[in-house]
Amino acid sequence: MSLIIYIAVMAGVTYLIRMVPFTAFRRQIQSRFFRSFLYYVPYAVLSAMTIPAIFYSTGNFTTAIVGTVVAVVLAYLDMPLIVVALSASAAALVAGFVIR
């Protein structure tokens, strides 16, 4: 029975988080500062969740740095996402073998 209550509470919280901005801001936001702030919020949240996961995913800080550098370089060169992800993973794996 408690599992159903947990699910119901989480559904309610999720609904409220998504509903409140739509009801609170019925008109278009006129403030340029606030609009630019809201524009960058998704990028900041995604970075805050992703960056720590990158550095703790391999269990070795050096291999994580190697994979990150490869990913950043390939992304800067406008490579497709699958190429960036596979190359960064391969670089971290090879770096792990070299370090041992």
Question: How would you sum up this structure, described in words?
Answer:
The protein has 100 residues and is an all-alpha fold. Helix content is 83%, strand content 0%. α3 (61-76) runs antiparallel to α4 (81-99). The longest helix is centred in the middle third of the chain and has 25 residues, at 32-56. It is flat, with a radius of gyration of 20 Å. The mean pLDDT is 91.
Total strands: the figure is 0
Principal-axes shape call: flat
C-alpha-based Rg, rounded: 20 Å
- Beta-strand percentage? under 5%
The H-and-E topology, N to C, reads as: HHHH
Number of DSSP helices? 4
Summed over residues and divided by their number, the pLDDT gives a mean of 91
Which class of secondary structure composition applies to the elements? mainly alpha
Poorly predicted runs: none
- Described by its quaternary structure, the protein is single chain
Largest sheet: none
**Helical proportion, percent range:** over 70%
Give the terminus-to-terminus CA distance. Answer: 51 Å
Number of domains: 1
